[in-house]
TrEMBL record:
<dbReference type="GO" id="GO:0051903">
    <property type="term" value="F:S-(hydroxymethyl)glutathione dehydrogenase [NAD(P)+] activity"/>
</dbReference>
<dbReference type="Pfam" id="PF00107">
    <property type="entry name" value="ADH_zinc_N"/>
</dbReference>
<dbReference type="GO" id="GO:0046294">
    <property type="term" value="P:formaldehyde catabolic process"/>
</dbReference>
<keyword id="KW-0479">Metal-binding</keyword>
<keyword id="KW-0963">Cytoplasm</keyword>
<dbReference type="InterPro" id="IPR013149">
    <property type="entry name" value="ADH-like_C"/>
</dbReference>
<dbReference type="GO" id="GO:0008270">
    <property type="term" value="F:zinc ion binding"/>
</dbReference>
<feature type="domain" description="Alcohol dehydrogenase-like C-terminal">
    <location>
        <begin position="208"/>
        <end position="335"/>
    </location>
</feature>
<keyword id="KW-0520">NAD</keyword>
<keyword id="KW-0560">Oxidoreductase</keyword>
<dbReference type="GO" id="GO:0004022">
    <property type="term" value="F:alcohol dehydrogenase (NAD+) activity"/>
</dbReference>
<dbReference type="InterPro" id="IPR036291">
    <property type="entry name" value="NAD(P)-bd_dom_sf"/>
</dbReference>
<dbReference type="InterPro" id="IPR011032">
    <property type="entry name" value="GroES-like_sf"/>
</dbReference>
<keyword id="KW-0862">Zinc</keyword>
<comment type="subunit">
    <text>Homodimer.</text>
</comment>
<dbReference type="GO" id="GO:0005829">
    <property type="term" value="C:cytosol"/>
</dbReference>
<dbReference type="InterPro" id="IPR002328">
    <property type="entry name" value="ADH_Zn_CS"/>
</dbReference>
Length: 381
């Protein structure tokens, strides 16, 4: 049996983003043991989300370099720090960028899934306990990212950010429930609360938008209109519940007018799953007067702002946003895993590519090709 690594520094492979827009470098990274309230996880599978690309590109005001990106993953607990009682080595887990301490003002409010316990530290790439990083390369500290840093064979996270899941669940699949799929489903079920018979518009048919479509279908939406500038997305989108397709490039009119004309005055619900502030405006303005609700899911670059005429809201449209689809991470990610195990939600269908950690730069390139939804990296190579 292998010697225990508990309490030891682990040296392992990780993809380090030394600087914005520079290729990631696979380095031998030293990962310190978990301190009080922390958990060290052996990451087995991680996917790439568009948000990893966004931060790597230098457009994230919270992006710090050098860092280890990655936030859509699954693994096994290697060791736990002092005071951690509800997790133990061997537990199968999904690290979650949205914590749930169950004790802070926000967790207790019953009004949000956002947790205030560790957010100040995760936003500056550090751990709460000593405001330092657990990662280093030859003594140089490397920042954490989103409190998860899953592009590493081992990572250290706060215990309030760890969802313990069914050990039977395939980690190379359910890693997707750490972000994109959960976010799209939750945007529909928790944030918008789409009712049966609703007319829905989804802007952007990547993984997040397709999960919105899947969620809307399961909620009984009567029409699900998918909007994307890449017509290649349309065929695959049918499998996720999209009933009609619109490519803005095929129209001279503003896209909001196209959708309003198609839907007798506008949709009941719209979702922006791109991160483009002009499309966020269009998504709001294609909603029906008096009740239409638009949910912002996409993450827009630093300095970008949304705008519309206040009259749009005065006349009853509602503008909302969602983080992790409103799901409470530790309570509800295990439930999502069960739904997958019971074949009630799709996951495998979003995985278009599988690669090894050593191929991570190729996987980043794939994010810009229409054919890639999610690429899952096996971490052992
Ligand atoms: N709020 C959250 O909690 C949360 C969680 C996950 C991802 N996100 C964000 O959601 C967005 C989508 O993520 P993803 O991983 O699905 O991304 P993705 O890149 O896979 O998908 C984006 C889709 O939008 C399409 N698109 C681009 N510009 C367009 C335009 N002008 N009009 C119509 N379609 C356009 C692309 O062709 C693509 O199909 C990103 O901004 C990501 O950062 C937010
Ligand atoms: N650092 C960015 C914010 C990015 C952002 O909005 N992140 C989403 C999750 S994207 C996952 O792919 C989120 O949940 N935000 C809530 C939070 O971070 O607490 C910026 O500053 O622009
Ligand atoms: Zn994500
Ligand atoms: Zn909390």
């Amino acid at each position: 049996m292998a010697a225990s690594t508990q309490g030891q520094v682990i040296t392992c492979k990780a993809a380090v983003a030394w600087d914005a827009n520079k290729p990631l470098v696979i380095e031998d990274v030293q990962v310190a043991p978990p301190q009080a309230g922390e958990v060290r996880i052996k990451i087995l599978s991680t996917a790439l989300c568009h948000t990893d690309y966004y931060t790597w590109s230098g457009k994230d005001p919270e992006g710090l370099f050098p860092c280890i990106l990655g936030h859509e993953a699954a693994g096994i607990v290697e060791s736990v720090g002092e005071g951690v009682t509800d997790l133990q080595p061997g537990d199968h887990v999904i690290p979650c960028y949205q914590a749930e301490c169950k004790d802070c003002k926000m967790c207790k409010s019953g009004k949000t899934n956002l947790c205030g316990k560790v957010r100040a530290a995760t936003g500056v790439g550090l751990m709460m306990n000593d405001r330092k990083s657990r990662f280093s390369v030859n003594g140089k500290p490397i920042y954490h990212f989103m409190g998860t840093s899953t592009f590493s064979q081992y990572t250290v996270v706060h215990d309030v950010s760890v969802a313990k899941i069914n050990p039977q669940a395939p980690l190379d699949k359910v890693c997707l429930l750490g972000c994109g799929v959960s976010t799209g489903l939750g945007a529909v079920w928790n944030t918008a609360k789409v009712e049966a018979g609703s007319v829905v518009a989804v802007f952007g048919l990547g993984t997040v938008g397709l999960a919105v479509a899947e969620g809307a279908k399961s909620a009984g939406a009567s029409r699900i209109i998918g909007i994307d500038i890449d017509s290649k997305k349309f065929d695959v989108a049918k499998n996720f519940g999209v009933t009609e397709f619109v490519n803005p490039k095929d129209h001279d009119k503003p896209i909001q007018q196209v959708i309003v004309d198609l839907t007798d005055g506008g949709v009941d619900y719209s979702f922006e799953c791109i991160g483009n502030v002009s499309i966020m405006r269009a998504a709001l303005e294609c909603c029906h007067k008096g009740w239409g609700t638009s949910v912002i899911v996409g993450v827009a670059a630093s300095g970008q702002e949304i705008a519309t005429r206040p009259f749009q809201l005065v006349t009853g449209r509602v503008w909302k946003g969602t983080a992790f689809g409103g799901f409470k991470s530790r309570s509800q990610v295990p439930w999502l895993v069960e739904k997958y195990m019971n074949k009630e939600i799709k996951v495998d269908e979003y995985i278009t590519h599988n690669m090894n950690l050593s191929d991570i730069n190729k996987a980043f390139d794939l994010l810009h090709e229409g054919g890639c939804l999610r690429c899952v990296l096996a971490m052992e190579h």
